[in-house]
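Marked as duplicate of an earlier ticket. Keeping the data here for the record.
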Amino acid sequence: MKYMEWESDFNCNIETIDQQHRKLVDIINLLYETLESRTKNDMHALVETLSKEADAINDMLRYTLEHFKYEEKMMLDYTYPQYNEHKEMHDSFTSKAKMYKNHFDSAIEVNVNEMMAYLKEWLRNHILVEDKKFVPYVKK
């Protein structure tokens, strides 16, 4: 079962951005799938699961940073007037994602439901509201 479905409203009609957003949705689904497969019955399986979780979080963070860099360059190239505000939102998300990563890396308990809800809602709202604001600047 997918945690987050791609919605047609997510399309910005900028091919590269839409592909990257789809990939971010896929990564969130993979992370959810990995976290859902947790089992504490077998220590070997638990260690393997924790390793997969760490990999999934690292992949999510790495790809998100790549996407933000691409999007921010595009905004600068097209002289998007709300670039600074948009970048601040990216930076805030990055800080929170790094905090989750650090907690996993340090074996600090993470509220998985809270983390997944945050990732899903942040991405959904960011695409539907904030990313849609700069589309007209690119389409000019």
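See parent ticket for discussion. Residues 42 and 124 are 36 Å apart (CA to CA).
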